UniProtKB/TrEMBL annotation:
InterPro entries: DUF305_CopM-like, Ferritin-like. Residues 370-446 form the DUF305 domain. It comes from the Bacteria. Keywords: Membrane, Transmembrane, Transmembrane helix. It comes from Martelella endophytica. This is Membrane protein. Pfam families: DUF305. The keyword Transmembrane applies. The chain crosses the membrane at residues 33-51, 78-99, 111-140, 146-165, 221-239, 268-285, 297-319.
Length: 454
């Protein structure tokens, strides 16, 4: 459970390069921390299965059933309320299809989201809401590439399928409604976890900005082990009842831990996943409908996990090669050349964005290194002068120093993107860590005096 907060989807906070080739799979297979993480998880899963096959396992499940019974009896209402609330929330946010990184300028999309939420009130109109969710996914597919949309396919289809099955009058269909949600979340987690192996560079800025995420672990140890944790707990949701319920509880703790450092964007973006995870933890059903014999056997744990890794890794790396070609450039190669598929060029709003040399055609406008430095300083100066105008000298000091420190952080980020001197790179990382700590302390000072909201 150590990798808590790192489960926030990095694409929501950092620009990424859509067509960059993933790191070679050999890099992951030669990483000792990858194998260490797998070994630890296998020990946990096998130990849990041994307990589950004993009287203690039955007792544990019975206790979990008693604790979760009030929710279990109202689970459909809970899931429907959260789905409706999610679509109201993204309606209020505006400008997105289904998640924070699937942006749209079409205003009517937000009103469709409100209609989807309203349709969930009645079982008769739930199939229409399901059709609306699929329609939004198809719209996003028009604007974004299929490989990127695979991150959200399983979850979107699963939620739509749940609404159809919940509205059905056929008991043989309805009994699978929670199972569909569970498979959707499991597939989504296993697929998105591969980013930590394929594109570890995407996570470097977050680790630099929020060093507490690693709990003191070295960056190159933490990222692959966090990927293993996410993948295997997603796999655990498809396992036997005790394994899946314990995996769900662990995931719920992890996703909640991500809310504080990453804020409302993370809470809204993960709301459906978190609700389904709660439903999995509260699910009293102990029946296994698919491949029950291998899932119940102890040998099914390593065989199943190995099979899942092979299937998902083959699909991830294979589909990327199919969409973008086997000779696509890696992140490091693109950082040295053109980055025409980056979602953002550098800006103070999106500091993770790659620096695109003028004329290279980066989305959102091209900036040279000089222009990036100038832009960061202009933003700092305006905010700093505004803060210094406060009548209270203590407040003026703090409100002026916050943008001053932020300007130093922005410059340090540019250095990390564009620079190469090891001394300066180390200094930039030191500045980011120290100045961010001081910024947090100054925000806390303002909150203590009621001068800033939480």
């Amino acid at each position: 459970m150590a990798p808590a907060s790192a489960f926030a989807h990095v694409k929501w906070f950092a620009p990424y390069i859509v067509n960059a080739a993933p790191s070679p799979i050999a890099r992951t297979l030669s990483d000792p921390f990858f194998w260490t993480g797998l070994a630890l998880v296998l020990v946990f899963f096998l130990a849990t299965r041994l307990v589950e096959r004993s009287a203690l396992g039955d007792t544990t499940l019975d206790v979990m059933d008693r604790i979760s019974e009030p929710l279990w009896l109202r689970l459909d209402g809970f899931v429907r309320i959260v789905i409706a609330a999610f679509f109201v929330a993204i309606f209020a946010v505006g400008g997105v299809y289904l998640t924070p990184d699937l942006k749209t300028s079409a205003e009517w999309v937000s009103w469709l989201q409100l209609l989807i939420a309203a349709g969930i009130v009645s079982r008769r109109t739930m199939p229409l809401s399901a059709a609306g969710i699929i329609f939004l996914w198809v719209l996003a597919l028009r604007d974004y590439q299929l490989f990127h949309l695979l991150d959200y396919l399983a979850l979107g289809v699963a939620v739509a399928a749940y609404l159809v099955l919940e509205a059905s009058n056929r008991p043989e269909w309805r009994k699978h409604r929670f199972e569909v949600l569970r498979w959707g979340v499991a597939i989504a987690l296993m697929w998105s976890s591969l980013e930590k192996f394929a594109y570890p560079e995407w996570f470097y800025p977050l680790v630099i900005e929020r060093p507490f995420l690693t709990f003191g672990m070295p960056r190159d140890m933490f990222i692959p082990m966090a990927g293993v944790a996410e993948f295997t707990m997603g796999f655990g949701l498809l396992a036997t009842p005790l394994v899946r319920r314990l995996s769900a509880i662990a995931l719920f703790v992890i996703f909640n831990a991500a809310v504080f450092p990453f804020g409302r964007i993370d809470l809204i973006g993960h709301a459906l996943i978190m609700a389904i995870i709660v439903a999995i933890a509260a699910d009293h059903n102990r029946e296994l409908h698919f491949w029950s014999w291998i899932r119940r056997a102890l040998v099914g744990v390593p065989v199943g996990l190995a099979s899942a890794l092979i299937i998902f890794a083959t699909a991830y790396w294979g589909l990327h090669a199919a969409f973008y070609g086997a000779n696509a450039q890696t992140m490091s190669e693109l950082n040295a050349g053109q980055m025409d598929m980056a979602t953002h060029s550098f800006s103070t709003e999106h500091p993770h964005g790659p620096l695109v040399p003028a004329g290279d055609g980066g989305q959102g406008g091209a900036l040279s290194v000089t222009e990036a430095y100038e832009q960061s300083m202009m933003g700092m100066h305006e905010e700093m002068m505004e803060g210094l105008r406060n009548d209270d000298p203590d407040v003026a000091f703090v409100r002026g120093m916050i943008p001053h420190h932020q300007g130093a952080i922005d410059m340090a980020r540019i250095q990390l993107e564009a620079g190469s001197d090891p001394v300066n790179m180390a200094l930039a990382r030191h500045i980011i860590a120290d100045q961010q700590q001081e910024i947090d302390a100054m925000h806390a000072w303002l909150r203590e005096r009621g001068l800033e909201d939480e």
